[in-house]
Structure formats: structure tokens, C-alpha cells
Amino acid sequence: HGRSRSEQWGGKYEFLLSCMGYCVGLGNVWRFPYLCYRNGGGVFLIPYFIMLFFTGVPLFLMELSLGQYGAAGPIMVWKCCPLLKGIGIGMLCVSTLVCLYYNVIIAWTFYYLGSSFQSPLPWSCDALANAGLCGNNTAGNGSGRVLSPSEIFWNERVLGVVNSEGLHDPGPVRWPLALCLLAAWILIFLCMLKGIRSSGKVVYVTATFPYLVLIVLVIRGATLEGSLQGVAFYLTPDWERLSNVWNDAASQIFYSLGIGVGGLLSMASYNKFDNNVIRDTLIITIGNCSTSFFAGFAIFSILGHMAWKKGVPVAEVADTGPGLAFVAYPEALALLPGSVFWSILFFLMLFMLGIDTLFGNMEGITTAVLDEFPQLRLNTFHKSLFLAALCFCFYLMGLLLVTDGGIYWFTLIDSFSTSFGLIIIALFMCLGISFFYGVNQFCQDILDMICHCPPWCSKVVLYFKACWMFFTPFLLLFILTYIFIEMYNTTLHYGPYVYPRWGKALGVCMATVSCLQILIWAIVAISKETGTLKEVRPTTPAAAGGPAPRWSRRGSRLRSPSLSQTWISTR
User: Is there a binding annotation on residue 275?
Assistant: First the structure.
């Protein structure tokens, strides 16, 4: 029972680097800087850090503590409260959708990385002019708007989206991208073949290399003409926007930390029982947010140079998401001396950022399945066969996203996979632990893990207790309300293409499936109980053994009065 020594991290640095790699992903580079400039520059940092300490850090600690104390994945860990098993199933649903589309981004990165070895760069005007696709740095797209060279390369050469009319018209598979996707899944399989023993070694490179690249890009950007204009655009405060930026700040904190997907919980389950989970939480969350802020200098210094060279405002070249990573920034790099070198460096960084995040999401899925079927752990061949089958299934499903119309499906899954369903999962996790399992008991569990607890530790736990019971649920409800309002009032689109109603309905269904698991499995748990304890017993730890014996090992102490039992008895 429990995690064997061979199934634990080789050292505390492997866990820290794996979590940093999981959290510091593509969103830190392509989403945070854009949100910062769009929401008033430096003013955005005020709500950002408030949301970090009242929502992000408490939920992060909760998920790490659950995994480490229970020594189990996102499903089995809910032996602590069988009524909430659906939270783990919901996490698995979200992880599946994220893995499905996230590796497509890595495939795009592979494609650009391979293309970066050409001189001139294939998205530069010099290269496209030779193919008759570019003149005077622009080309008409038939709609009156002009396309930059990098847009032509992205839309026509890479995606082939010009050959598709929308969701209903995916078209043929683009085999260069399909091969890149296959290579990405093979690499994921090889890196995870021996579980955390192999992926834990890989992160020494993949989690540290992006920091070296960011430092190099910041230094290079600082030497360019117009870089200060870009940085000023990034940071100049606009105090009038302070009242309008809270939702973006909360959403960015929530999504960048990877909360509610099961990856954090699974990685923490391989920790030693006495690992200082509070220390790790503070290091990872603050490090993640600091990286986001620092990445903004690397992005906007070089975008500022491109704006200066083209004689346009920085706002005209700034973008977010794939538009920044595969259009705006590559175009800026193509203008630099030694553009091939800088392009290789940038896309190698994106590749490593993406693969680390995918490690964490895949770990959430594999750990959950191996916990449910422990016999797979005992046979190395069967375990490898399961991982190979899982990667191959993801590859086959991902082929839809590398067709001519694949970007439409990608945008749909990206928009809804981590939408309201993920917020609801996190909300029920917070409320379930606080009011069903018992927040007092949970705080004691954390202190039990930290054997030599310094005086400040107990005071910090009181702060987290207040967050879990009051501040965090309130803020999650605020985010959830805003998401529903925005979903109702806005249309989903990719470029000029507006998604049909059935497409948006499909996305809502995808998000709903994950949060419905909470209700379904709660009903199952209650239906299995009989007698007068029908309401109470599903909220108490299961007595069975399995990979998480710590919930039952404490016996009667777990059944001592807690907030949940007090609440039920006084109804």
C-alpha cells in the first residue's frame, strides 16, 4: 500500500522543478504580457497579486496537500470523502481535453523549430516574395485587409485554414503537422516511460532552459532601438482601468497555476510524507508569477523594436495566444541580425515550456488510472503498454486538430476545456474539504506532514484556513458569474469566422461533462449507503486500504467531530 520508495521523487528539486515546469507554461509567455498591457500596464499587477494570495496560493496548497497526504492520484485521494469522488473524475475529464489540444501546440512548435533552420526564415518577406506571396511586406487576403508575411506563413503554409470554411469543413489532414504531432507524442512516451523516475530527470533541462532563454532575450531586447517604447507600453499605469481588470487577473492566476486539473495533486502524491508543502507552495506560486512578469520584458522589448522599425504604434503589433507566439514574435525575430539563431532559441524555449506542462497533465491521467488498476504498476511491460496505448489514442484524436480546419476545433476546445467546468471543480474541492471533510482536520493534516513546524507555519495555516472558508469560495463564485455573463453576451470567433450556435453548444457540453461528474458520483456514493447515516457516512474516510492508507490509518481520529459533522448534526 502507498507509494513505494521507487515511486517517489529522487529528490526535492525534482518535484520543485516538475511543478515549476508544469505551471510555467506557454500562458506565461503569450498571455500574461498581453493582459498586462491591455489592462492598464502596471495597474494590472495590483489585482493580480491580490488574487494570487487569496485564490491561487490557497488552492495550490490545498491540491498539493491532498496529494501528498493521501499519496494517491485525483480519484483515489477522495477516499478521504467518498461523496466528492466526482471531483477527481471531473479533473480527469479536464486533463483529457487539455492533453488533446496542448500537444498540437507542441506540434506547431516542432514545425516552426524545424523551419527555423532555413535562411532566410520562411515567414520573412524575402522567402515569401520568392514564392510570389509577398510584396512590400504585405499581401492581400481578398477581404480588404493586408496580411503580414508571418500571417501568410501561419495561415496558408502551416494551418491551411484558407482551405476550410469552418467547423463543419475540417478538410484533409496536413501531414507535415501530423508527423510533428506523432513525434511529440513519441517524445512524451519516452520521457514518461519510467514514470517520475524518467520525467523527473528530464525537467532538469526542460524546466531551467526557458529561464536561460528569457534572460538572453531580455538582454538582446534591451540593446535594440525602440525597446524602451515597448517596455513602457507594457508597464505604463492606467489607473482608470483598475476597476475593470479583476476578472482577467483572477483568471490568469487560476489558469497559469494549473489548479483543478489533477496534475499538481498527482505529482505531490509521489512526495515523502514529511515534505514541507507550505514552503514548496510559496516557492512555486511566487516563482511562477515572477516568471510571467519577467517574460513581459522579453516579449515587449522586441515587439517595441519591430514597431519602431515599421513606424507603427506597439498596439498594432501586440497580440496574445498563438497570434503572439506564431505570428507577431516570429515576424519581430525575422527583423533581427542573426534571425535564424534567435528563432531557434525562441521555439526551443516554447517547446520546453509546452512539454513540461504536458508532463503534468499526463501524470494526472496516468496516476489516476494506475491507482484504480494497481496491477499495472507491478508489471513494467503492461504499464509501458498502457502508456503507449494512451499516447496513441491521444494522437489519433488529435489528428482532427491538424486538418485544414483544425484551428477551429482547437480554438473551440481551448476556449471551453478550462472554462466554467474547471472553476466549478475548484469551487467544490474548496467547499468539500472545508465543510465536509473539515477545515480544522485538514489544517491538522498539513501540520502533521510538517514534522518540525516553525512558529510561523501555524500562523500561516490560520491564514489559509480563512481563505478556504471565506475568501477563496467568494472569489471563485465571482469568476464563475463573470464567465457565464461573458459567455452569454459574446460570440466565439477565430479571426473573421464566427462560430455557429451548435459549435458553441458543443463547447458548453464539453465543459459541462466535467462538472456533472461531481453530481453523478455524489448520487452514487449516497445510494450505496443505508440507514440513518445516509448523509454522514459518504463524507467520512473509506476504511479500505489501497494506495492511500493514510486516510484510514488514523482510525478514530478521522471520525472526531469536524465542521462537516457539526453542520450535519445541527441541521
Answer: no
